[in-house]
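Worked problem 6 (solution included).
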Amino acid sequence: MRPQLINTPHFIANNLALDFLNSAFGTGESTCDCLENDANAVAWLQAAGQLGSEFHGQAVGLAAAARRLREAGARLIDTTKQHDEGDLDEINRLLEAGHPIRKLERDAGTRFILTERRRDHSIASLLEPVAAAFAHLLVDGELSLVRQCEAHDCTLRFLDVTKSGRRRWCSMAVCGNRMKVAAFRARKDAS
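Solution. The predicted structure is:
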């Protein structure tokens, strides 16, 4: 049996879609899936700021749908980076079924405002912001900035928004320091 990590999500990717991919992570033999069950999937959406803490609805089947979206998004990003066609069906289904309601209203004065709210508490509505984040990642040309952490045993991805474009680690605290210590030890042992 493989050891389990505490289900604490990492929000280090600089992108909602990549943070969603990173909801399953691990180093070495330790793994964690923040979408393990419906309650954890709701907690992840709340931690990501995509669902208010006041949500107390039933989300039966949310975790399974979220894992399908995560797998579809990962395949799409991987195949697109390799210039292969990916399957758009899962993302398009959620974008269509979960699209938010937009409404033109007046504010307290005479100005007009465009409001947007979640359509309902269906699984598609709950996951639509994540599906939209995948779509924006692919459409906005940021795919070339998606990187995999260079730690040999890390699964996390991130959007490299550094000026130099040379970010190597998911996080200096998570993997950067660990890999630098290992390199230092290797150099010390070699001498």
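Discussion: DSSP finds six helices and six strands in the chain.
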